[in-house]
Amino acid sequence: MSGQAADPTQGGYAIEAVDIVKNFGSLNVLRGVSIALRRGEVTAVVGDNGAGKSTFMKTLSGENIPDAGELRIGGRAVAFRSTQDAQRYGIETVYQDLALGPDLSIPANIFLGRELLQPGLRGRLGMIDRRRMLDESHAVLVELGVRIKSYRAATQSLSGGQRQGVAIARALKWARHAILLDEPTAALGARQRDMVYEAIRKSAARSLAVLLISHDLPQVLELADRIIVMRQGRAVANVLPAQVSVRDIVDIMLGAREAA
Ligand SMILES: Nc1ncnc2c1ncn2[C@@H]1O[C@H](COP(=O)(O)OP(=O)(O)OP(=O)(O)O)[C@@H](O)[C@H]1O
Ligand SMILES: [Mg+2]
User: Which residues are paired to 16 by β-bridges?
Assistant: First the structure.
């Protein structure tokens, strides 16, 4: 894919996924999933383990190429062949496994593939501006409330919660259109969790489309503008938080009840 990114402010939906199918060998993981994200809204995707949530999200992030179906941005069909394609449209992702380079420093991870060059001739010679990358990494992590002693240490030496913070900071730093978060608070303590939820609210307030995958149903009810329930590779319900309880969602997730 090449050329100009579509104007993502056009059209009612920021991102539309229509009838997405994804198979792994004989395993039909996504069986025709249609989900649309609006700018300025938090859309939560919930479902039991193995329902296909991460697989679906990875079709929006360019990590998985769907076998059938269509993605639209601002109403126009796009075909992502790589995560860089999605990034060109301002779509940033926090993967469930974080996708950080373990041997890289924090700034190197946050700027991976988007390194800042030094001004002037040095930059033209390809010299990287480590100072600015460090300062900007620091700023975004401080805003997120993640405390880190050494920004120069390899990312693998951080705690699980700190690593999660780095992955979230990277997505927040670069997202211009949509931010996709797969279980972003799984490794976090209460204080950092609240800060991540606050960052999610702020992202929506900045008019980003936010996709949040989470098993924390009470939090989803509080935070989301819309909740999509997935079961066995299908989106089986699309509800407003005010219309449902945690119990209702669990029943729909498990197939004990059909969506209203
Ligand atoms: N790369 C892959 N190769 C083969 N099978 C895969 C692959 N990725 C996912 N699957 C399978 O697809 C199904 C759905 O997985 P997925 O990770 O999307 O579930 P999930 O809803 O995110 O679950 P969880 O809540 O546990 O994260 C699972 O059966 C999984 O084993
Ligand atoms: Mg998952």
Answer: 36, 72
- Tracing tokens 């089986």 back to the chain, one arrives at 236
Class level of CATH domain 13-101+160-254: alpha beta
CA of 223 to the centre of ligand 1 (A): 25
* Phi and psi, residue 191, nearest 5°: -65, -50
Give the pair of three-digit tokens for residue 259. Answer: 């969506």
Distance 135 CA to ligand 2 centre (A): 33
Q: pLDDT of the chain along its 260 residues, tens only?
A: 433 444 444 446 789 999 999 999 999 999 999 999 999 999 999 999 999 999 999 999 999 999 999 999 988 999 999 999 999 999 999 998 888 899 999 999 999 999 999 999 999 999 999 999 999 999 999 988 888 988 888 999 998 888 999 999 999 999 999 999 999 998 888 888 888 898 899 899 999 999 999 999 999 999 999 999 999 999 999 999 999 999 999 999 999 876 65
Residue whose CA is closest, atom 1 of ligand 1? 24
Q: Please indicate, yes or no, whether the overall pTM of this predicted structure exceeds 0.70.
A: yes
Domain boundaries, the chain: 13-101+160-254
Residue nearest atom 6 of ligand 1, based on CA coordinates? 24
Place of tokens 């100072």: 131
In b/e form, how buried is each residue of 226-254, taking b as 16+ CB within 10 angstroms? bbbbbbebbbbbebebeebeeebbebbbe
Task: Give the closest residue (by CA) to ligand 1 atom 25.
Answer: 49
What is the Å distance from ligand 1's center to 255 Cα?
A: 19
Atom of ligand 1 nearest to the CA of 183: 27
For the chain, what is the largest distance between any 2 Cα atoms, rounded to a whole number of angstroms?
65
**What residues are paired with 117 via a beta bridge?**
128
